Structure formats: C-alpha cells, structure tokens
C-alpha cells in the first residue's frame, strides 16, 4: 500500500466510506500525493500516456487557427483572451502563442493567454515552458478568479479527469460504488443509491456499470458565466449520451493509465497513475445551452481537424520542404489516424455572440443538436 492509500484507509476507518467521486478526486488532486495535484503526472513518450499536445506543435497550430477564426468573426477585438484549463506543463499554450505570432500576427498582438491552474508544481512548470511569452500570460488559480473575457476557453483532456460517481445495476435497482477499508487495504463496496440521478439508463441489464460526472454542469456554467463573447472548445474522448450508455458498454469506461498501459483497478497505487472516464458530451452541451451558450458544433477529431486546418495545410504546401514542415505533416497524420486519435477525440463548440455560420472545423460535421440527441 502506498502512502496515499494508507492515509485514505486511516481516514475511511475513522469517518466511513468515501463515495467513488470523492476517492477519485483524492487520487488525482490530493495536493501532496495526487497524480496531478502533486505534479507527478508524466505525459508523452517517457510518461504514462500520450495526448494531442504530446504529438507535437501541429495541434497548437490548428488551435491557433481556431482562435484567429473566432477573433476575425468577432470583428478583431483589441483584447482577446486564450484561456486554458488543465494545461499540464503549458506546452499547448506555448505552441498556440508561437503559432499565432508566425501564422496570425495581427491576432497575436491582441491576444493574452490566461492559464487556470490551482496546483503549484504545474504552475511552476507552465511558467518555465512559457518563459519566452511571460509578458503575455497570466495565471489564476480557478474559474472564480477569471475575469469576464472575450476569446476562447480551451481544454484538451480536462473533462475526463473530473471525478465520476459509479453506479451498478442490480435486479433491485441501482447501487452506488464507494471505497471502504479493511485490514489489508482499500475495497470497493456497492451501497443502496436512493439519490441515483434520473439520467441512468432505465433499461440497463443487470450488472451494468455507469459513470455520472457530478461536477460537469457547474464547470460549463462557470466558464459560460465568464465568456462575454467567443468560444468554449472542449476536446476529449467520449460520446453522445446514447452511445456512452449503450447496452454493449456494460462495464463503463473508467480506466487507469501508467507507463502506457491500461488497467481497471483504481484502488491500486492511487496517485501513481491517471484515472479517467469517457465524457458525456450530451450533458456538457445541455449544460452550455442552459447557460445561454449556442451548441455550435460537435465532431470527431478527424473531421474537425480536416475542416479547421485546410488553410494551414494549403499554406504549408506552398512552403519549401524542411524538417519542421515534414515533422508537422507527420504529426498531423498521427492526429487524424482513423483507428486511434482521429475517432477517439471529439470537439464540442459552445459559443456566445457569433453569427450562425458554421466554424471551419464543423464544415464536414452533422448538425450538432441531432448528433448529440438534443432535438
Ligand atoms: C490528461 S491531463 C491533460 C493535460 C494537457 N491538457 C494535455 O492535453 O496534454 C489533465 C489535466 O487537467 C487538469 N485537471 C483536470 N481536472 C482538474 C480539476 N478538477 N482541477 C484541477 N485540474 C484539473 C490536470 O491537472 C491536468 O493538467
């Protein structure tokens, strides 16, 4: 048992079982020993998993193009914000600011970045990565401290780390999973769930496991409350609700990642590996609509990137061949791969104050409301 598991076991023995979302919050965000909170998360080749950001700077170039499109569509505001949450070491924000400076210089002049980061070790890593852009970057610890802004709020693989409640179907109804303790360590324990949310699938077969993310609505609402005009772009793996809760996905989607290996035991070595569950995009879109945002697009990464990157790819085609151009094209192909990143990741666009013309990234997408089951 590691130090965090021992501490949780002592707390549970003294105060009773932890609901699974409370356990997941500690495993990921405990400031001393949580996977993210302590700064021990490692992303990329030598770490625990890859993200779009770790594939190379090309992802940041496309997100910069997306920012420039919003800036143009809002009639080039003098103060434009790129706000990122869950920025890990700040690599993506640096890639976006670099790409704005080279590919969209007028937009770059109007843009400041704000990183929303509560954890001191991650903020220190971000300050280091963004040293060359120091005069254009601010930090706030949480959304409550973020001033109202015009611009883009961006997340890549943030929502999947928001803690989930776990429910298991039995012949007598839904039970909710808790973490309890015995002499040897931590154990899962399913307890009656009198407050099971209505959105759990009524016809789920016995033993179906389902995740619900209780913090998702408030998160979207808090961003919406600060977004005066512009875009909230959520990139993550997940599905519309009908797919997430489809009968064939009966084991849920909760997964752990360490050293590029997946396992499904969240109680082993808490704080030493990532814990994640797929995102219910219908819930996020519904929360955005309730907060007054427009559900402006939903697409997989392949379709979004092909639409959003077309002008960038045409410009790259005209540029002389160089090792960086070849590396960017290779990274782009990796991001598009139809059996991995191209289909796993989805892009949800929630906007305020834009006209109804589709954003470039959704040129090849089905209408969002239908795809998300919101109509
Ligand atoms: C999977 S990593 C993704 C990092 C980066 N965006 C990337 O794509 O490489 C998840 C990030 O979200 C942050 N995060 C997720 N949920 C959070 C929460 N509730 N509070 C603070 N940070 C959170 C983590 O600290 C981490 O930086």
Detailed description of the structure:
It is a single chain. Helix content is 35%, strand content 25%. It has helices spanning 3-15, 20-29, 58-73, 91-103, 105-110, 120-129, 216-226, 241-244, 281-290, 301-308, 310-318, 323-336, 341-344, 368-371; strands at residues 18-19, 80-85, 111-116, 137-140, 149-156, 165-170, 173-182, 185-192, 209-212, 227-239, 255-258, 261-263, 274-276, 279-280, 294-300, 345-352. The strands form three sheets. Strands 2, 3, 4, 5, 10, 14, 15 and 16 form an eight-stranded mixed sheet that branches. Strands 1, 6, 7, 8 and 9 form a five-stranded antiparallel sheet that branches. Strands 12-11-13 form a three-stranded antiparallel sheet. The longest helix has 16 residues, at 58-73. The model has no long low-confidence stretch (mean pLDDT 96). The structure holds S-adenosylmethionine (SAM).
């Amino acid at each position: 048992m590691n130090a965090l598991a021992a501490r949780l076991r002592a707390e549970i023995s003294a105060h009773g079982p932890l609901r699974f979302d409370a356990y997941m919050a500690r495993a990921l965000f405990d400031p001393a020993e949580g996977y993210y909170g302590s700064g021990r998360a490692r992303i990329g080749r030598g770490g625990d998993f890859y993200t779009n950001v770790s594939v190379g700077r090309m992802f940041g170039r496309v997100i910069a193009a997306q920012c420039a499109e919003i800036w143009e569509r809002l009639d080039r505001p003098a103060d434009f914000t790129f706000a990122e949450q869950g920025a890990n070491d700040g690599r993506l924000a640096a890639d976006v600011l670099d790409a704005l400076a080279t590919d969209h210089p007028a937009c770059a002049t109007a843009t400041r970045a704000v990183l929303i980061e509560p954890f001191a070790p991650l903020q220190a890593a971000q300050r280091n990565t963004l040293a060359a852009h120091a005069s254009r970057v601010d930090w706030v610890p949480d959304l409550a401290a973020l001033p109202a802004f015009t611009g883009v709020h961006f997340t890549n693989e943030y929502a999947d780390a928001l803690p989930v409640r776990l429910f298991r179907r039995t012949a007598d109804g839904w039970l909710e999973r808790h973490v309890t303790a015995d002499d040897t360590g931590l154990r899962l324990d399913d307890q009656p769930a009198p407050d099971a949310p209505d959105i759990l699938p009524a016809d789920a077969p016995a033993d179906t496991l389902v995740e619900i993310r209780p913090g998702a609505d408030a998160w979207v609402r808090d961003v919406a409350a600060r977004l005066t005009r512009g875009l909230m772009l959520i990139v993550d793996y997940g599905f519309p609700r009908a797919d997430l809760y489809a009968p064939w996905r009966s084991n849920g989607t909760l997964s752990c990642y360490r050293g590029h290996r997946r396992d499904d035991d969240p109680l082993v070595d808490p704080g030493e590996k990532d814990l994640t569950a797929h995102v219910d995009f219908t819930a996020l879109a519904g929360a955005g609509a309730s907060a007054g945002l427009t559900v402006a697009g939903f697409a997989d990464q392949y379709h979004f990137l092909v639409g959003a990157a077309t002008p960038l790819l045409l410009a790259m085609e005209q540029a002389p061949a160089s090792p960086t151009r070849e590396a960017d094209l290779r990274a782009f192909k990796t991001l598009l791969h139809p059996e991995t990143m191209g289909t796993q990741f989805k892009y949800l666009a929630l906007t305020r104050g834009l006209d109804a013309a589709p954003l470039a990234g959704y040129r090849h997408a089905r209408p969002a409301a239908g795809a998300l089951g919101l109509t």
